[in-house]
Write a structure and sequence with these properties.
alpha+beta, Sulfite Oxidase, Chain A, domain 2, 2 domains, 5-stranded mixed beta sheet, 5-stranded antiparallel beta sheet, 5 helices, binds ligand MTE, binds molybdenum atom
Length: about 220
């Protein structure tokens, strides 16, 4: 009798483990992620499954920011020879680039999203950075800041995205702009970007970096 119960328990255990596996089937979306897709959002790209642009929860320092696009400006300032201010449509008129890139958060989750945006290098070069500029600091509407080396932005040809999975970036994901910091942890992906500051401080530390996260923010692959 005892043996029977043990087998029954084992059976239930195996079943639940399997349903877990089914939910993680790489060839189909889980019902939880399906529910998060917005209307118009594509769910697959070049045979690869995409993650919903909006994650299951928000971990931003001050919650989701609602940016008034009519009042919005993007400023490029600091160690530059030609400080500039652009509005939303001026940025959107620049050449656009599409990239399929995975965002990895320090908390363990990740999301593979088709990003579309403008080149950060083309944007920053409009302001003619000084040769002493080594760091790019991103300032956001919620007061959040983070930074990347200017050399890395150039080397990786990083983009500033305004679309995710073919829809306009949802507020939760940083409307109007998010830094697509490829191969860097989530805290480098500044959302609701309002200002890009060039700096000569190679050791600048942003919000999470000054609270102990590494400035390199490399993904452990
Ligand atoms: N402006 C701003 N951008 C931000 C943050 C924030 O709090 N404010 N959080 C960062 C972190 S820690 C992560 S993991 C990603 C995704 O945040 P989410 O987990 O809230 O979706 O956004 C990043 N960009
Ligand atoms: Mo994060």
């Amino acid at each position: 009798m005892r043996k029977f119960f043990l087998i029954a328990i084992l059976y239930v255990f195996i079943l639940s483990a399997c349903s877990n596996i089914i939910d993680k089937d790489p060839d189909s979306h889980s019902s939880a992620s399906l529910a998060r897709f917005r209307s118009g959002e594509i769910q697959q790209y070049q045979g690869k499954l995409l993650s919903p642009a909006v994650g299951p929860r928000d971990n931003s320092i001050k919650g989701v920011q609602q940016v008034d696009i009519n009042a919005y400006t993007l400023r490029i300032t600091g160690f530059v020879n030609n400080e500039i201010t652009m509005n939303y449509l001026e940025v959107l008129q620049m050449t656009s680039y599409k990239r399929l890139i995975t965002l990895h958060c320090v908390e363990g989750w990740d999301a593979t999203i088709l990003w579309e945006g403008v080149s950060l290098v083309e944007l920053i070069e409009k302001a003619i950075p000084k040769s002493s500029a080594v760091t790019v600091i991103f300032h956001a509407a919620d007061g959040y800041t983070t930074s990347l080396p200017w050399a890395l932005v150039k080397e990786r040809q990083l983009i500033l995205a305004y679309k995710a999975n073919e829809i306009v970036l949802p507020a939760e994901m940083g409307y109007p702009f998010i830094v697509v910091a490829e191969d860097k942890l989530g805290y480098k992906w500044a959302r609701w970007v309002t200002k890009i500051e060039l700096s000569d401080n190679k050791d600048y530390k942003g919000y999470w970096e000054s609270r102990g996260y590494t400035n390199e923010a490399n993904i452990q692959k």
